[in-house]
Structures are given as C-alpha cells and as structure tokens.
C-alpha cells in the first residue's frame, strides 16, 4: 500500500517539475532519487520501490488528466467554431466572427487567439441578453445580433 503523504509529495513534485507535454522527466528524476536513497541506505529497499511505484502511478494519473483536459478543450473549440463557420454577413457576404463576451478563461483566450478569423473576444461588459451582438463582420465592420440583424 502506497503512503498517501508520499503520493501527495510525488504528485506535487511531478506537477511542479514536469514539462507541459507530461514527458517522463519528473518520473525519471524520482527513480534517480530512489536509486540514490537505495545506494546510500541498502536497508530501505521497500521504501525506494514504494517511491518508484508511487511516482509511476502519479505520473500516469497526471498524463490521463492531461489527455482528458485536451479532449475537453478540443470539444469546446469545435463547438465554438461550429457556431460561426459558414455564417456570412447579410450585407457583404463576408465571413462572420463570433463574439465571446465575459472574462475569458485561458482556454477561451487560446482558442480565440488560434482562430481569429472566426472568433473574437468582446470584453467583460455586456448586458447578457438579446441586446448583445453575437457576430461581427470585419469586411464591412458591422455588428450583428444572433438572428443576423444589424445592431442599431
């Protein structure tokens, strides 16, 4: 049975020292530390194997969380893009951009930055009802409501 305090410490170590793509660097470092402990104190064999096992389990958990987070982000991006792709301005037939109001999360900011031809940040100040524009046409500089009627 793995000591939960040890697992928590390893989890923090991996999260604080791991690269964004969750490679094995931190896990390899934990194995290196465990090897050093074992070399210095041959009597602690069971502790070092416990450290290595905890490190592997925690690394696998973090990697699974990373994959799940990336999948969720892709679904969010896909949903946002579907809401605007193919929508054309009724005045000039230009490609519309979806306006995203509110304080953006890092995910929303990255998605909007990655897709400037389809998405734009609208700021935090909005009515939160039908008075807010939903689309913007960069070609004719028109703001449009969700029903594609021009904002007055």
Describe the overall structure.
- Helix content is 51%, strand content 11%.
- The protein has 152 residues and is an alpha+beta fold.
- It has 2 domains: 4-75; 84-144, no CATH class.
- Strands 2-1-3-4 form a 4-stranded mixed beta sheet, covered by helices on one side.
- It has helices at 4-17, 25-40, 45-82, 106-114; strands spanning 97-101, 119-123, 135-137, 142-144.
- It is built from 4 helices and 4 strands, in the order αααβαβββ.
- The model has no long low-confidence stretch (mean pLDDT 78).
Shape, principal axes of CA atoms: rod-shaped
Count of the separate structural domains: 2
Overall pLDDT confidence:
78
Secondary-structure element pattern, one letter each:
HHHEHEEE
Q: Which percent band covers the strand fraction?
A: 5-15%
Distance between the termini: 67 Å
**Largest sheet report:** 4 strands, mixed
Helical stretch count? 4
Report the radius of gyration as a whole number of Å: 25 Å
* Count of beta strands: 4
Lateral arrangement of strands in the main beta sheet? 2-1-3-4
| Unreliable sequence segments | none
Q: Percent helix among the residues?
A: 40-55%
Secondary-structure-based class equals alpha+beta
What is this structure, in a nutshell?
With 152 residues, this protein is an alpha+beta fold.
Quickly list its features.
152 residues; 2 domains; single chain; alpha+beta
Secondary structure layout:
Layout: H1 4-17, H2 25-40, H3 45-82, E1 97-101, H4 106-114, E2 119-123, E3 135-137, E4 142-144
Parallel strand pairs: 1-2
Antiparallel strand pairs: 1-3, 3-4
């Amino acid at each position: 049975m793995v000591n939960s305090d040890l697992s928590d410490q390893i989890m923090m170590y991996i999260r604080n020292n791991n690269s964004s793509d969750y490679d094995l660097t931190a896990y390899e470092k934990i194995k290196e530390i465990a090897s050093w402990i074992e070399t210095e104190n041959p009597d602690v064999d069971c502790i070092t194997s416990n450290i290595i096992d905890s490190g592997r389990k925690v690394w696998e958990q973090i990697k699974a969380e990373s994959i799940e987070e990336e999948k969720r982000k892709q679904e969010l991006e896909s949903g946002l893009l579907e809401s605007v792709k193919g929508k054309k301005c009724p005045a000039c037939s230009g490609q519309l951009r979806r306006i995203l109001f509110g304080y953006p999360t890092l995910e929303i900011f990255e998605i909007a930055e990655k897709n400037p031809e389809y998405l734009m940040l609208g700021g935090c100040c909005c009515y939160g009802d039908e008075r807010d524009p939903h689309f913007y046409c960069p070609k004719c500089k028109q703001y449009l409501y969700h029903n594609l009627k021009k904002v007055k």
